[in-house]
Amino acid sequence: MKKRILKEKTFIKYILFSLLIVILVTNCNQDDTQEVAEFKNLSMHDEFDVDGAPNSDIWTYNIGTGDNGWGNGELQYYTDRSENIVVEDNMLKITARQESFEGSGYTSARILTKGLFEQQYGRFEARMKLPYGKGMWPAFWLLGSNIDEVSWPFCGEIDVMENGGSKPTIVSGSVHGPGYNAGNAITKTYEFNNSRVDSEFHIYGIEWGPNYINYYVDDVLYNQITPADVTGDWVFNNGQFFIIINLAVGGAFDGNPNADTVFPQTMYVDYVRVYSED
To answer: Is the dihedral of CA 212, 215, 216, 222 positive or negative?
Structure first.
């Protein structure tokens, strides 16, 4: 009887040990399947070390309110004024202001590399310190260069970093395409444990290859999106993408400013760097 009980206990221990091994192997396999690339060829960079307007060889502007607040019900009017966008102190500063301007109650800025710098695949990163407050919506993102031909979301969109100003410890990365866009985008958040987006600079980046997009915060890989993860066509092998950096006010992501939101608010960009394969 004692031997039988001993055998049963030994068998139970064996089963539990086997389950533990399966769990550990499964977790390791999940990590091992992540494709991690190192793109080391610097193909574009802006260190923002020349005072004045952003480098016109790299950046142009979106001006105005767009269609339906750039499609998101945003409240700002984008300008190219130095009050809203300027390079000084070795960084780019995009400032959202509460003021009456061209029929809008707020102003800010949005710059892009469309027609000036576009690339397929590689590492795209920026070192930033973000604003704080309900209704602030800073973003660093990419759009397919064929947007004028196929329209959004068929061109594809890669959100390297978005932040809602009411959540200063959380950023997110997303992809948008046909069948998975707007509120149905493929998204994952990253939460800081001992920091905030508005108190320190952080590096936000992606590494993008034919069958994956890896998301990083300060070189920590926190998400990988592959064709198997999307609920529609994988449109990220169809051509080059350009960069957009903007600070929106209000809209769908974090809602509108409230009485506690302090203006002006500034988004600081220390650098933007893009790498390609050797």
So the answer is: negative
Which residue do the tokens 């998301």 mark? 215
Torsion sign across C-alpha atoms 33, 34, 39, 43? positive
Output the pTM of the full model.
0.88
Mean pLDDT to the nearest integer, 95-99: 98
Percent of residues, the chain, with pLDDT higher than 70: 87
The token pair at 60 is 């142009």
Residue 4 corresponds to which tokens in the numbers above?
């039988």
pLDDT(21) > 90:
no
222-238 pLDDT per residue, tens: 999 999 999 999 999 99
**Beta partners for residue 93, in sequence order:** 86, 268
Tell me how far CA of residue 45 lies from CA of 42, 220, 243, in angstroms: 7, 21, 12
Catalytic sites, residue numbers: 157, 162
DSSP assignment letter at 120: S
Distance of CA 83 to the CA centre of its chain: 25
Residue closest to 250 by CA, chosen among 143, 166, 172 = 166
Backbone torsion region of residue 195, taken as left when φ is above 0, otherwise alpha when ψ lies between -120 and 50, otherwise beta: beta
Task: Give the pLDDT score at 34.
Answer: 58
**What average pLDDT does this structure show over 146-157?**
98
Q: Are 124 and 254 in contact (CB under 8 A)?
A: no
Nearest C-alpha neighbor of 86 from the set 99, 70, 97, 71: 97
pLDDT given for residue 248 in this prediction: 98
Helix H, strand E, coil C: the string for 146-215 is CHHHHCCCCCCEEEEEECCCCCCCEEEEEEEECCECHHHCEEEEEECCCCCCCCCCEEEEEEEECCEEEE
In Å, how far from its chain's centre is CA 223?
Answer: 12
